Amino acid sequence: MSVAELDSNEQLRKAWKEANLVPLWESPTAHKPPAPPDPTYLWAWDRVRPLIGRAIDVANPAAVERRVLTLLNPKTRGPEDEASVRTLAAALQILLPGEKARPHRHSMNAIRFVLEGEGAVTLVDGKPCRMEYGDLILTPGWCWHEHEHRGSGPMIWLDVLDVPLHLWLGTAEFQPGPMPEMPATVPDEAFAIANVMPDITFAGTHSPVFRYPYADVSQALAAAPRARDGARRVRYVNPATGGAAMSIMDMHLMEIDSEETRPFRSNSNAVACVVEGSGESRIGGETIRWRPRDIFTLPQGNWITHRAFGTSRLFVTSDRDAFARLGILKDEYGNNAS
User: Fold this and answer.
1) Whole-prediction pTM value?
2) H-helix or E-strand spanning residue 18
């Protein structure tokens, strides 16, 4: 039957289907208002900490690649979804004294934010990075990294990776060790003085500094002026560029007090971890209360405010840099309710 002989809608639709054509005007998304924002989800530390400890009984880094429990959002995830919030996957990793997590590398960017313990070291392209509470360790895409625990007591840290974005783009790749011999890295001491840089050329898009000590970041945060939303906030940057410490992912440490922050909405997504203090956040139509080491999501499209019961600090990892590089980042500020 020729196209001219299709004399009914039923025949026409059948022909479209056979040709793998779909009418755009019947799309559930095209030319329609956006779907409501995803809701937030909070993982309370006092609930997940005992369950992390039980992972010791069933997984050993000598047998599995990493002893990790991924934080999957039950409100938004699909059957094969590995996201905590749209483009980011958060997880908790635990390492015991004397254990080693063998070297590997992957295309995905990752950060490690220390929540418990001391004495562990992450080696990034062979460069040792000490791990203490509140420290941020970068393991950028395609950097070799391994973990060793040389102290006492369990070490637990928050992992955040851009895995969901790479899965969607088809760029997720993994390479096991052994690690080849690596060229010498620039020591962090070369970047220890503000506004002074080594006179060399840096390759790559990530920071040459892999460890950001909490003590140093705290000092900068205490001196920072208030941002537009009323919180104090500092950004973890690449000293060679002044931009985000890693491409795609962006990290900030913010301090809030008892006065509610100005409402803020972004089309970027974030995962927040409570470093100090307690408080509450209004995210969309939901209010959540949080305490130290709690982890919660800040999904795109939600109006967000924070209020501390005293003074509190939040470590926030987002996909803002990816959105900014694509030219699609959108931030909005509202007014506090009177």
Assistant:
1) 0.93
2) helix 9-18
